[in-house]
Amino acid sequence: DTEVTQTPKHLVMGMTNKKSLKCEQHMGHRAMYWYKQKAKKPPELMFVYSYEKLSINESVPSRFSPECPNSSLLNLHLHALQPEDSALYLCASSQVGRNYGYTFGSGTRLTVV
Amino acid sequence: DAKTTQPPSMDCAEGRAANLPCNHSTISGNEYVYWYRQIHSQGPQYIIHGLKNNETNEMASLIITEDRKSSTLILPHATLRDTAVYYCIVISNTGNQFYFGTGTSLTVIP
Which residue of A has its CA nearest to B33? Predict the structure, then answer.
């Protein structure tokens, strides 16, 4: 299995809702990542997990809450989002260590109304 | 934190070679250069990577200059399906983080 699976593919949520994005991989990768991508912009790194521990938070607002319950799963919990948080959210995984390539999922298209 | 510079857009005729340049003048000696592409609204797809030698796989070739300050991705026979944004990435010197630059939007013209 050489894929990163993200669910759901599309999500519409209200500003008062709580929702979660899910990311799963079975490649034995112990580093996992969340990226946010606005239209016509490059992906921006949000969070990095290494061995299930949060190692990097790129000053992301607290309304985004990541969680890595095991080595195969990565969640992004969403609460009280704003319309400007509408974007494509990408998950990726890699081996831990320098100079390992990433495998990306196909993303979740989030719309906040 | 992006350490690469790419032209914002390029066109290429179908069937011709597409040569996409990337400048990474601050690259360190042990940092790899990775190329990914992103077709509209999909996740980035790995193409190729290299350290100092030229590399070739079934998708593309990567030419890295001797001083490693720049590289060129070559798609030997571009097809319409190669229309995408191409990102050249140098891994962060503090770990394994990918910070994307603005990329090159390649349009393959029939």
Answer: A99
Q: What letter would DSSP give residue A84? A: G
Closest alpha carbon within chain A to B91: A99
Paired residues of A4 in beta bridges: A25
Asked whether the beta carbons of residue B46 and residue A103 sit closer than 8 angstroms, the reply is yes
Tens-place pLDDT, residues A42-66:
999 999 999 999 999 999 999 999 9
The answer to whether A103 and A29 have CB atoms below 8 angstroms apart is: yes
Cβ proximity of B110 and B26 under 8 Å: no
In contact, B48 and B55? CB cutoff 8 Å? yes
**Alpha-carbon gap, residue A81 to A76, rounded angstroms:** 12
Which residues in B lie closer than 8 A to residue A31 (C-beta atoms)? Answer: 96
The region that residue A69 occupies, defined by phi over 0 for left and psi between -120 and 50 for alpha, beta otherwise, is alpha
pLDDT tens digit sequence for B23-66? 999 888 788 899 999 998 899 999 999 988 899 999 999 999 99
Angstrom CA distances, B43 to A47, B76, B78, B105, stand at: 17, 23, 20, 15
Phi-psi region at B8: left, alpha or beta (left = phi > 0; alpha = psi -120 to 50): alpha
d(CA A95, CA A32): 9
- β-partners of residue B5 are B23
